[in-house]
From TrEMBL:
Coiled coil: none annotated. Keywords: Arsenical resistance, Plasmid. Residues 1-135 form the Phosphotyrosine protein phosphatase I domain. Pfam families: LMWPc. This is Arsenate reductase ArsC. It comes from Citrobacter arsenatis. The keyword Cell membrane does not apply. One of its GO terms (biological process) is response to arsenic-containing substance. The keyword NAD does not apply. InterPro entries: Ptyr_pPase, Ptyr_pPase_sf.
Amino acid sequence: MNVLFLCTGNSCRSILAEATFNHLAPEGWHSMSAGSHPTGHVHPRSLALLQHEGISTIGCYSKSWESLPLVPDIVISVCGYAANETCPTYLGLVLRSHWGVDDPARVTGTDEEINAAFIKAYTILRARIEAFFTLPLADLQKDKTMFKAELDRIGNLIG
């Protein structure tokens, strides 16, 4: 199954989710990330945090949802609602859920405050991804309604 983590810029949250998901994923599961308006670069703090966590950043780059190498089966948007952020809606016949996380790239302040925002976003996403992998995935693949309900539950309860 292919999972797409989607946000606007594809420089922070969706990159953190993609790399973490692939780091934890069992065989047969793969994620990618994209943005509706990609920034064209991955935020250096995202890369540094992933590397600190021992997660590979090979292949992490900011890309458009129009140039995906595969068609996703599941699309999880990770845009937050802070600062009136608009979350893109992927058009296609896929299972969709929203796991909103505030954008750490928008945080200002000291290095410690900015780093804390990146760590918070990563921690929320990692907890949700870990919860995802505790689901009875083989069973849920046969019941899309229940699968969506479980994905939405994870997005609403964790974080």
